[in-house]
Amino acid sequence: MTRHKGRIRAAALLAAAVLASGCEGLPAEDTTGGGGGGAGAGRPERDARAVSPLKNPDGTAPGLAPVTGDTNRAAAVDLIERLTTKGRGPRTGYDREDFGYAWMDTADGVPLARNGCDTRNDLLRRDGQKLRFRSGSDCVVVAMTLHDPYTGKTIEWRKRDAAEVQIDHVVPLSYSWQMGAARWPESKREQLANDTLNLLPVDGRTNSAKSDSGPASWLPPNKQIRCAYAVRFAQVALKYELPVTTADKRMMMRQCGG
């Protein structure tokens, strides 16, 4: 009986110690969200090929690497500070076709235009790994591995499940319309819609959840790249002289420590 009581007391002490530790020994819940084909739960994966937006001002290098270090984060804040602000206008009159037909190869003034391959496949070739192409083509990607920056998951993509990977407009076209693109010439809208700087292949369901949100109402689930996302959003807005809302600018600054 004495030995039995001793065991009960030892078990009670162990339980109390676990509660006092705040459950730090338990595995973290995966909150990254995202679609099928991903890696399992846990810390977001990193793409070794991904480049920081601060080192990729034209968007021709792959991926979206985190912005790290005090110097780089200060540079990010300086970039975001240059943005002008205004209220978001109405969506009245917006039509995707006002930005040209989807993934046109003939938008002038942007990287990779007129290379014989449409914009979507250009982006899959830029960011995808282990690429497989349609027979007889060096353009049409039919299978690849994608390290999705928004969720941190790895997606084994096949063209038969095309929507599993979507091309995100970092600055959404509808957002740009409400912030001034409605008054642009069509050629400038076509540039924005097909500019590598504004385009990232990402998990389809996560992109759908973003819709036409600005940073104040949507950020990537992967917290490691939120400053990088804010920088890329700012780079596009500055290139096309687009203002952002005050709330969006404030949130972008916050992601980079400003």
Task: Give the N-to-C terminal Cα separation.
Answer: 64 Å
Order of the strands making up the biggest sheet:
1-2-3
Spell the H/E element sequence: HHHEEEEHHEHHH
What structural class should be given to the helix and strand makeup?
alpha+beta
Describe the structure concisely.
By secondary structure, the protein is an alpha+beta fold. It is built from eight helices and five strands; from the N terminus they run H-H-H-E-E-E-E-H-H-E-H-H-H.
Notes on the protein architecture:
- By secondary structure, the protein is α+β, with helices and mostly antiparallel strands.
- Helices cover 33% and strands 10% of the residues.
- The protein has eight helices and five strands.
- It has helices at 2-20, 70-81, 119-127, 173-178, 186-194, 204-210, 226-239, 246-255; strands at 129-133, 141-147, 154-158, 165-169, 199-203.
- Helix 7 crosses helix 8 (246-255).
- Residues 1-41 have low confidence and may be disordered.
Notable characteristics:
disordered N terminus, alpha+beta, 33% helix, 258 residues, globular, single chain, three-stranded antiparallel β-sheet, 8 helices, two-stranded antiparallel sheet
